[in-house]
Amino acid sequence: MQDIICTFCGSVCDDGEYDLEKRKVKKFCKLGSSKFAEKERIKAPMIDGKEVSYEEAIEKAVEILVNAKKPLLYGWASTANEAIRVGVILAEKLGGVYDQCASVCHAPGTLAMIEEGLPGATLGSVKNRADVVIFWGSNPMEAHPRHGTRYSISAKGLLVKDRKQRKIIVVDVRPTKTAKIADMFVQIKPGYDYAIISALRAIISGNADVVPNEVGGVPKEKLVELAEIMKKAKYGAIFYGLGVTQSRGRDRNIENAIKLVQLLNRTTRWVIWPMRGHYNVVGAGEVPAWEVGYQYAIDFSRGYARFSPAEFSAVEVLLRKDCDAALIVASDPVAHFPKMAVKHLKQIPVIQIDPFPNMTTLIAKVVIPSAVYGIEAEGTVYRMDCVPLRVKKILETNYWTDEKILEEILKRVEKLRG
Amino acid sequence: MVVVELITGRTLDQGATVEEKLSDEYFNAVNYIELSEEDFKQLALKEGDRVKVVTDFGEVVVFAKKSELPKGIAFIPMGPYANAVIDPATDGTGMPQFKGIKARVERTEERVKTIKELLEAI
Q1: What's the pTM value of the predicted model, to 2 decimals?
Q2: pLDDT for A191-205, tens place per residue?
Q3: Of A173, A245, A358, the CB nearest to B73
Q4: Are strands A71-75 and A366-369 parallel, antiparallel or unpaired?
Q5: 3-state secondary structure (DSSP) of residue A416
Q6: CB pair distance less than 8 Å for A359 and B80
Q7: Domains in chain A and their CATH numbers?
Q8: Distance of CA A391 to the CA centre of its chain
Q9: Which residue of A has its CA nearest to B70?
Q10: Inter-chain residue contact B119 with A342, CB threshold 8 Å
Q11: What kind of fold does domain B2-120 have according to CATH?
Q12: Which chain B residues contact residue A339 at CB under 8 A?
């Protein structure tokens, strides 16, 4: 089969080939190949480790959810928009909290966007036009392996024809694999992104004299050189990663970077964009945004949507022990949350919907296995640049989709709650 | 003992095994710390030796690896071992501090816990 769409990372490559006989995918990277490889699955729905039918597991899940005062509904980055849509309605009906993986990933960028807007572009635009690309705290060679060849490093564009016409700069705290293939590597001290962006803004706005001889481990001359490259670019793109959002400063780092891009846009053209991780983490934010107005950390306990990451992000809710049940869909918070947050998850009834066994399976009371979107189920997802793509079904399965499981839960909850 | 600034993050191997979290491959992809050559030497380590990483928020035993990091910076792949020692405070953003945590690293004879043991200990 041709034009297979990959459901691993935010690049959502759409040019794969699938060999139905060998059950193997061609053209994709190590991450994409692992996605399409056969692996251990959750065999059947389970309650307390005992195999049951889908209907029995759903009944138990509904019982837990309707009896909870404030359930947490978390995950959503590795499923399709159709399932997320039902999940948000379910959170509203239950008076629970909706939060998604971006809250421990790129959500600080959302906070920055609320303050400053986001001068962005599609990946196609970057491929065709960008003559300078900066990877700031991002490492696509490991996290988005084909981003470079398809869009941002060696991609062959209409106006910028190849690698020779594109300057690649990496700003990072360590010499990453991406730094090794860059034209310029700016090594900074951890937690100094904000200061360095401020220094660049000062230099570009003609106030280089206020910049000290060294900022965040970078000599002033190097910052002046970088500022010159940025000013001279015809079309520049900053792709930032978790190096910026998970370090000291978090959302303020991105806000400052957007201000830098706004400044550059007085004389040339620059865009800035997050390197989103999971294939539909954009959908996990966009879908609730078009349903209830917010992207994450949404509380429905008062009967209407309230947004407050300081209160309603999953980590804050768990640290405060402010939920008494959890529905985890297409995610593994037990592996990816800080230990203190996992501690509360271990103490409340957890329902998991996921194709694969993971650390959350080990603590879940109810486990409901699901079909893999892009392989066993079709659906719509947003690529990292918000371009919607329809992922395909290539293999038959007996597993239910996340959408069907959530629809069945919602139907029963509506019956009980009205 | 060396004092380092700890960062955590994605690696290709962590990504490729992320849907097989209960496998040996995932265990091997996330159970180590990368140290600079200088820090590695100062602790008199050999490749595969174990170290205890201690922060204000917890401690964890992992395997030690030498890497090209600058002195004083250490890296653990994102996952349960990293999350045992990161700072859970979000400063009102919802985002814990996964990068830039002060940590003490010392050589140890203690065993590296399996993923299940790590979870049981929480």
Answers
A1: 0.96
A2: 999 999 999 999 999
A3: A173
A4: unpaired
A5: helix
A6: yes
A7: 40-105+279-373+398-417 (3.40.50.740), 107-274 (3.40.228.10)
A8: 17
A9: A174
A10: yes
A11: Barwin-like endoglucanases (2.40.40)
A12: 57-58, 83-84, 88, 122
